[in-house]
Amino acid sequence: MSSWGARKALRLYPARYRSEHGDELAGVYEDTTAGAGPIVRARELADLAGYGLRLRTGLTSGAMPGRLLGLAAPFAAGALATPGLGLLAEMALEVRHGHALALIPHDPRFVLAKVAALGCLLGAVAALFGRWPLARWAVAVGSAAWLAYTVAWIGLFSGYRLSGIVVEVALTTAPWMLWSLLLLAAPPDLHRPPSRARTAALLAGAALGGPVLADVMFGPMFFPYRVVLWDVAAPVLMALEVLLLVLAVPAARRGRLLPAVGAIAGLPIGLVGLVVAAAGMLGGRPGVALVVGGLVVFGVVVERLWRTPVPELERSAV
Where do transmembrane segments lie in this chain (predicted)? Predict the structure, then answer.
């Protein structure tokens, strides 16, 4: 049969798929790793287990969730790029004004922030040119750095009420992590070379989603935009997200995936709008109910999309 590791990895596959293809998968694994070193065997085992998890969760190119994430991935890559662009702009200004020494961070936490911004910028550039393996690795490193940065600063929230901590995390960390997970969870075989549609989606992510993250990292630099973001753009984008959620399931069942893709890609923007709308009420029940209600609605839509079969290829173009 196969090695202990391969047998355990095959247990992750759905029972029916395992019974039909288990021996074949085990044979391919043994042939591929015959005489190979531990690193190669570990990588092949991770690929074997990873595909089993994708089959169980529907994150393959043949299932609706995987297809939606694959189509939304360029938008996520573009959104994650904007903090890196803001960082480059800040560095250019420091050099121009003769303050190059200011670029050397004295606090390790700011090193993490710079790694996060530049890592995700590299990921977006790689995605733009169709280098998706590099894009995924760069975004993974950048997002891990941002998560570590957030944890390093968590002590600043110790004097906050629980509602205040929820607002801070939702506005500073949740959008970044959601877009990162969206890109990393998308099926690798849907990451095709560049096209006009994918380039447009990436630029849309940079224009619509990116400023949300840029405001988190460079708020003082973006003060005029901040007024527009919180006072004008947030309610409009939140209303658009609600509209896309309403249209997502019926449109997907008719082979039109654009509303569902927009709802998935715009979830972090919708979350920011939801938190901003509820921030003034979070100390009481109305604000909590608003946030919980919004998350429940999104969860219901995702669950129904999960059960929607993939439409025919010729009808699924966006």
Answer: 68-89, 109-130, 137-156, 162-187, 199-222, 228-249, 261-282, 288-306
